[in-house]
Specification:
With 492 residues, the chain is mainly β. Helix content is 5%, strand content 40%. It contains five helices and 34 strands.
Length: 492
Amino acid sequence: MPDIQLTKGDIVLSRRNLLTTGAAAVGAGALTGTFTSPAAEAAAKPTPSTAAGSIPKFAVAMPVPEVLRPVRRSWNTDYYRMTMRTVSTEIVPGHQTEVLTYDGSFPGPTIMAESGRRVVVEQTNALDTPVSVHLHGASVPTSSDGYPMNVIEPGGTRTYTYPNVQPNANLWMHDHAHMEEAEHVYRGMSSMVVLSDAAERKLGLPSGEYDVPLVIRDVDLDDNAGIVFTMDDSVNRTTILVNGKPWPYFTVEARKYRFRVLNSTNLRWLAPFLADASSYTMVGSDGGLLEAPYSTPAVVLSPGERADIVIDFSTYAPGTSVVLQNLAGTGDPAEIMRFDVVAAKAEDHSRVPAALRTLPALPTPTVQRSVVLTMDEDGRPNPMGYINGKTFDMNRIDTTVRFGDTEVWTVSNGNVTTPHNFHMHLVQYRVLERNGKPVDPSEAGLKDVVALLPGEEVKIQMTFDSYRGLYLYHCHLMDHSAMGMMAQMEIV
């Protein structure tokens, strides 16, 4: 990630210009883990709610999201049915909290998909507000991309078809209804879709019960344990949830585990870091496996980014506990969850090979473009977000792309204090450079979200050779996209 020193005790991590923990500081808001905008500062409350303050850490077991079973299978397609509905769940012990869900689960169930095999999902909206389902990171026809105005009205049903023509990737499903997406996702509407292939399975990475999704989010709770949504509030969302539970513990055997980490927060930046400063191995990012594994004490994830990591717990004696902390912040909450190590059931035959995949050579680009992300940061009420100086307009095509072209986009953050990131629908891209320098291994694979601190610039390259039609690009700090930081491209 960007060029600064992340410090934790005696450990100094190069992450170029992002965060510093410990005794040092890098400017207003950086140590909260969310980066504070003027609007968020103005909305800050002096104390957390009574409900949030009563949550004990590491007191509840972390659940593993269930795997959704197809209702029918044909020779080339798996068919699913999901219902979006409101349910109550226990976040604060002894209290019920209303959340929005896919199929009644918080977070939603995992769909296990296979590259080259279609997935068809019939989505029914049992909520009282329109929704639009976006499969983030997927190459899909525009009819199934979850365009913000292609909504499912309350009581309605829509069928989404996912061809899965791309290789292995950690995808996720979330709402994208216009002006509603930030609140809907914040209140619970996220669900992982794991796309696998034969080449990935041959590697021998940890699998089965040792392959675990970690869906991380944060919430602001009122005194009755209700979820409070305030636009662009990066200050008060202080309760960290992993797979729907606050600061949980997870019992692991003394062996290798694969964790598919998703930052499903709206605004908070994460840098998962084992409290004893042990390194783990990053094997994949947004668009699937890296070319080679990458040993690191921390991986920085802006909202929407994914990291596929392997932690070897055989280095710990049974009975040991180790806390997973958020290095993107020194204050409360510094913790994410705790791992409790027990004896392994059997010998561990999983491995992390030295080579994971070979990415295709980058073709020569035919088009160069520039994109500037900004938002109002002068403290005005109801600030707006902009791409190239314009807020989102469904009646305007911002970029016309010729089918088959390879393009390089220079994306920059024009703000002084506010961070952004950049997500494109339809395509996975390669990050060529950050601030004129090569990227580190965590960003060297296929990406669909790239982080941008104030004043930063990245160059990305992608080829538009899968589908024609209308698609979005936007900041994936979802409050920012809902504030207008979104644009449209048409592939013709």
